[in-house]
Each structure stands twice: as C-alpha cells, then as structure tokens.
Amino acid sequence: MPLQQKHLLGLEGVSAEDISLILDTATTFREILDRPIPKVPTLRGLTVVNLFYEASTRTRISFELAEKRLSADSVNFTTSTSSVKKGETLKDTIRNIEAMKIDMVVVRHQAAGVPRFLTQCVDAAIINAGDGMHEHPTQALLDMFTLREKFAKLQGLRVAIIGDISHSRVAGSNIRGLKAMGAEVMLCGPKTLIPRDVEKFGVQVTYDVEDAIAWADVLNVLRIQLERQEAGLFPTLREYHAEFGITQQRLERAKKDITIMHPGPINRGVELDADVADAEYSVILNQVTNGVAVRMAVLYLLSGNEESVS
C-alpha cells in the first residue's frame, strides 16, 4: 500500500492508517538492522540529498545510515561550505540541486514552513527533518514505534510530555501522532513554556510534575531549548530541575512501572537525572536504534519503489 501523500511535512492531518503503514514497514526494516550485513538494495539508483541548515547529530546520522542501508546514493549539504555563504537563496539552492537529478530531499531548517516551501520549488519528495518550532515527524514516528514495540499498542496508552512544550517541534508532532493513534496525552511544564489554549488539541495540561508522573505510563522528557527562547521564562536551570526534573526519588514515589523517553540531546541534571537516563526502564537508546528503521521505512514508502524490502 502506498502512503496517501507524496511528502512527509508533518503529522498534522496524517491518518492512523498511514502512521500504521509506516510503523509496520519499519518493523521489517528493524529486523534487517539485526542481520550480519544490515543492507538491502531496495533504493539502489535513487539519490537523496540531506539539506541541513541546522546542527544535528542523531537525526542527520540516522538519515544517512537509513539511506546507506537502503543502498541509495546520499549527498550531504552544509551551509558552512555552500553558496549560501555567498548570498544564494533557498529557492536557487534547491533548484540547482534538483538540476543535478535527485529524487528525495531530507531538510532541516530553523524556519517553520521551509519543507512545504520546497514542495513548491521542486518535484523531488520532501521529508521534514525538523522545521523551526513546527514539526519533527520522524522523531514522533520513532517514538511511537518504540512505544508500540514495548507495549504492543498505542491505543489508550498514557503519555506525558514534560518540559519546554512551546519551543518543541518534537512535542507538536508527538501530540498529533499519538492522538491520531488513540493514545492519551498530557503536557507538563512551567506555565511560561506551555502554549495557551493547547487543550484544543485534545490533551490534558498540568503544571505539577508529580501529577504527571502519577497519571502516565510513559514520560517523554524534553530538553529546555535555550537557543529558541526569550530570556526570563523561568528563573534558573537549578530551579527548573527542582520543580520539573525527573529524578529517581520522584519515580519511586509513584510506586509503579514507568517508561522514560527523550529525543536528545539530554541535558543531564536539568530535565533528567543521569541515573534515570541510564536506568533499565529508559528506552532512550532504543529510540535511537529504531530511528534508523523508521527513517528507512519513510524513505522507502515515499520513493514509490515497489521492490520487496527484504
């Protein structure tokens, strides 16, 4: 079955059927990653450009590995060594790249809406790897894949997203994806870091981390994104940790099993204590591994290639 869209710009409006198709396809690719030679010829002959205007470690390497595991040809673009430094516009950059005969573009940009803009400039399939404070769809998909892998379902699962909700594209995509799949979502953080009227998305809101822990099956903990914030949204990082940090003591008081997630990078001792990040109930490294499989699935499904994935 093909996806119902040519591009992956976000999870807003994406159906549960399409999300399930991506997660089911990722299951096959996850098995391939455990082989002695984790590579298939599925996208041989296709060229993917990784167009990253923002710094990235996990997302960029994950996409690069996904492309290599599928035998696609990949080209990496960085602004520091490109004609962007000479004043070239985004439109001219992407049109010149397309003139070199490419098939897909993975784009990360500090401005919301850039992936959608690129769909108006080129015919290649566009995959959003994070645009401003808007969406990060593949992160949400790998989060959902990791949860489904552990709990066997998403329907009815209680997921609390804790931290800097206002500046997080990860939160935006997770809310949309989890709600589409029937999960319950709660947001928790300082009032200054939670958008107004966010309840209209069908989520619950609390400003007490103890309440969130008591309610949730899963905590998806976000970092404080100082690079996107105005000053004065909370007093100090120490005080943030005291009020909202996930500690072993807080989890023990809940007296129940709880799963810890984090999209990375982790600021240890701020939003999450080191012993919690490294605990057996943490699935943070599982998320990283599963990210390659999920991105393989997205690349495959958007490529239009009907060759067997095995």
Report on this model:
With 310 residues, the chain is of the alpha/beta class. The protein folds into two domains: 16-136 and 288-303, Aspartate/ornithine carbamoyltransferase (Rossmann fold), CATH 3.40.50.1370; 137-285, Rossmann fold. The protein is built from eleven helices and nine strands. Helix 1 packs across helix 5, helix 1 (16-33) packs across helix 11 (284-303) and helix 2 (58-69) packs across helix 11 (284-303).
Please tally the β strands and state the result.
9
Supply the CATH class of the largest domain: Alpha Beta
Which CATH architecture of the largest domain would you pick? 3-Layer(aba) Sandwich
Identify the CATH homologous superfamily of the largest domain. Aspartate/ornithine carbamoyltransferase
Structural class: alpha/beta
State the shape. Answer: globular
Mean pLDDT: 93
| Residue windows where pLDDT falls under 50 for at least 5 positions | none
Q: What's the domain count? A: 2
How much of the residues is beta strand, in percent? 5-15%
Provide the succession of SSEs: HEHEHEHEHEHEEHEHHEHH
Proportion of helical residues: 25-40%
Give the number of helices: 11
CATH fold name of the largest domain: Rossmann fold
Major beta-sheet overview = 5 strands, parallel
